Amino acid sequence: MNPGRDLDARAAARLLAVQALYQMDIAKTPLENIIREFVAHRMDNPMDGMEMPEGDAAYFEKILRGVVDHQTPIDRQIDKYLNDNWHLARLDSTLRAILRCGVFELVFGNDAPAGVLISQYSDIAHSFFDGPEGGMANALLDRVGRAVGDGETPTK
């Protein structure tokens, strides 16, 4: 077992999960179809000509199913920690996908330290956005991570 390889595979799975949620939102692709498509065609292929490790298909599926199954409490957590000038419904679809994946893993995942999750999802946000979105994602995920660490449970 190679711990570094496992971490890379999970990081790739997180990025792929964000992209899959975005596609589900924009193209209204059903969950089962998106899982099949990504596992069959995107887990081990370079993205946009960029080399990246093969994604962990089981972890990718866990994130997607978890976000879909817990979307209402996840969205409530996001709304709770958004600043007054940000509103979930008005956020860019990619940013919504990043926040939903990050909050799912922080609140329901228990598979990685909060600092790792916050860092990786913040990096994903910065890779998609040049403006304040990356900082906002970092701040929101940090607040959620601290609340979870303090024993706060999500709103159902």
Please give the structural blueprint.
Blueprint: H1 3-27, H2 31-41, H3 57-69, H4 71-81, H5 93-109, H6 114-128, H7 133-149
Please explain how this structure is put together:
The longest helix has 25 residues, at 3-27. Helix 1 crosses helix 2 (31-41), helix 3 (57-69) packs across helix 5 and helix 5 (93-109) runs antiparallel to helix 6. This protein has seven helices and no strands. The chain starts with a helix and ends in a 7-residue tail after the last helix. It has one domain (3-149): NusB-like (N-utilizing Substance Protein B Homolog, Chain A). The model is unreliable at 1-5 (pLDDT under 50). The chain has helices at 3-27, 31-41, 57-69, 71-81, 93-109, 114-128, 133-149. The protein has 156 residues and is mostly helical.
Can you tell me the residue ranges where pLDDT is under 50 for at least 5 consecutive residues?
A: 1-5
CATH superfamily: NusB-like
Count of alpha and pi helical runs: 7
- Strand % is under 5%
**SSE-based structural type:** mainly alpha
The domain tally reads 1
Helical coverage, percent range: 55-70%
Following the backbone from N to C, one meets helices and strands in this order, namely HHHHHHH
User: What is the oligomer described by this structure?
Assistant: single chain
Q: Which CATH architecture would you pick?
A: Orthogonal Bundle
Number of strands: 0
Computed Rg? 15 Å
CATH topology name: N-utilizing Substance Protein B Homolog, Chain A
N- to C-terminal distance: 38 Å
Shape: globular
Main CATH class? Mainly Alpha
Overall mean pLDDT stands at 86
